[in-house]
Structures are given as C-alpha cells and as structure tokens.
Amino acid sequence: MSDITPERGARNLLTNCAHATAGDRLLIAYEPPEHGYFDADSVQIVTHAARSMGLSVDAVNVGFNPDNPHLSADLLARFETADIILFLARLGDQLRFSEMPQGKKIIVSFALSRELFGSGFSNGHHDAFLDIKAGINGVLNRATDVRVTCPLGTDFQGRPEMNLDTTGDTSILRFPMSVFTPVPAHSFSGRVALKFLTGTGSKYYDDYTVEFEGPVFAMLESGRLTGFDGDPADSARAEAHYDRVAGKFGIDRNFVHSWHAGIHPGCGYPWDMRENFERWGGSAFGNPRILHFHTCGAYAPGEISWNVFDPTIVIDGVTYWENGAFHADRLPGGATILDKHPCAAALFADPDLDIGLRRTG
Predict the structure, then answer these.
(1) How many Cβ atoms from other residues are within 10 Å of residue 170's Cβ?
(2) Are residues 55 and 194 both part of a single domain?
(3) Exposed, middle or buried, 174 (CB in 10 Å: 0-12/13-18/19+)?
C-alpha cells in the first residue's frame, strides 16, 4: 500500500469517517501526552489536515480522570458550538456507552500517535472496514454454530444471538473501524486460554493487569464464568483478581458479557505491551490476531478483559479467522469490497503481525 502518511490517515478520518465539508466546525477534545497514552503530534496532524480542507478547528484539553470521567458543563457548552467532536482522549472511550449530546458527529480515535496515524491502520479506507464489519455482522446474525479455538487450547462454541440495533453497539463513530458488533456471550460455553487478565478501559484501578506463568483456562458456561483451570497458583491469582475487582465496584463477578475479534489487519502495536497494558488494551484489539472478551459486570465493556491470541473462528463450517489471519474475501461480497478498496486489499495481503507480544525491551 503506497503513500501511507499521517496526513492521509487524518484526511481518511475527516473525509470518510466524519464526512466533514468545508465550513464545518471541528472540536478536538484531547488528552495531553504526559498521561502516557496519546502522543503530542496527533492534534497537530488532524488540525493541519482539517484546516487544509476548509474546516475551522478548536481544541480543548480534557485531561484524564480515571475515577470520575464526565462531561463538564464547560465542555458541553463547547460541544454546542461544534459540528464534529473528535476525542483524541480516553474520555471519549470511557463515555462511549454513555449519553452524548444529540445531533453531533462524535468520533473516538483509536489511532493514538503519529505512528498509528501514519500506518495502514489509519490509511486503509474507512468505508472498506465499515462494509467488512457489516458483512461479518450479517454472517454472525444468520449463523447457527460458531466455534472458536486457539493454539493455547481455547475451545468455546455457541449460536450467536446478535443485537444489531443501536442498543447492541455504541452509536459513537469510531476511527479506525476495527471490530464487529460484540457477540453476546450468554449462548456460548467452553474454555478460554489466557496469558493474563487486564482491564477494559471502562474504569482504572491499581493492579490493573495480572500475568500468569502459564496459560490459565477460564471456564465459560452459558455466559457465566464458572472457574479457572491451570496452575493452582495462577488460578488462585485469577480468582482473587475477580473477587477484588467485583468487590471494588459492586458488580456481577461472573457475568461474561460479549466477545469480538479484530477485523483490521493494519492495526499493529509497535511497542511492548508490558510497558503500558492500558494503552495496549485501548488500541491493539482491532488486530485479527486478537479476540477480546468483556467480563466482570453485566454491562459493556465490563471491567476485566480476556484476550485470546491467534484465534481460529469457524462459522457454519466456514473458517473466517485462521490462526489469527482474517479472510475477509470469504465473506459474502467480501471480494467485491476488497476489489473496490485496493488499499484494504493490500493490508489483508500483508497484515501487520506486531501486536506487542514480540518485544521484550
């Protein structure tokens, strides 16, 4: 895929996701780089692209509040004067399942940095991944049997009962589009192989991530966590983590809400995940090498995520994900989507395999 630049990534966001036109008023709600999540360049990259398109741009520092994320009266007043609101801040993700002002285009960016704006993740045409998401949603909605396995021993199965109206997904626009609508877990059972437990970005708490010495299997029965199977010490740590998080927030400990897999082969994570699990969890999940569960709490996205690596997903006998490779061309109409968007086809032909696992320093 040629001519991949941060500026093209920003224009993809503004043109193909926001559908911005000259004269629109863009408000960028940003999180400053000292919080270690969004970099210092992204606001400038988007501002420059927006002004070159004839947009007026305002920017407001919304900081980062892990304990009480909210839209202040001042911020809501700023929203009223904007046509498009872009969150380059975790606040947008924290509130994406909450009430937002009506009649505004509100976008949450999962491109966190110059590197990600300048990668295939942001440069692949937004419409291609909207169409791919709709395609896999349709396959899942019609499916009678889905089985998921992975090299570490994951094996769970069920019949999806999809909710494809607006209550089944967040209505905020997301850029890039990197997952399908979450599959409710209540009709799935089996085991899920885990290397660690980490948060979902909904709330933040001490000891956010618990890593295991070897794989631990979370046992799933009709959308409920029934226990852990693995090294006794690791399993005990997993149980204690669930006890602590569920107790801290007063939530349904064993509720497993939903799962989804990544659909964007350009969604790389070129850093060591262990340097910042919160940042990894907020952006890398869109890679097809990752399948992601929302658990602990009877709501999306819950407070503890399960992450399965290199899944194989077989839907009614068709293998759509094969050891972490997503075959979008196997979707009904998938080949047509890729023919229409050569930039997306190039990403599927040469996917970014770096999801933060291979780096040690």
Answers:
(1) 20
(2) no
(3) buried
Phi, psi angles (nearest 5°) of residue 238: -65, -45
- pLDDT tens digits for range 29-63: 999 999 999 999 999 999 999 999 999 999 999 99
What is the pairing mode between strands 105-109 and 155-158?
A: unpaired
181 DSSP 8-state letter: P
Task: Tell me if the pTM is above 0.85.
Answer: yes
Give the span between the Cα atoms of 38 and 218, in whole angstroms.
32
Count of domains observed in the chain: 2
Instruction: Give how far Cα 80 sits from Cα of 51, 58, 83, 218, Å.
Output: 20, 12, 8, 45
Domain that holds residue 213: 127-162+178-349
Identity of the amino acid at 306: W
Distance from the Cα of residue 259 to its chain's centroid: 11
Closest CA to 295 of 307, 309, 280, 305: 305
Same domain, residue pair 291 and 193? yes
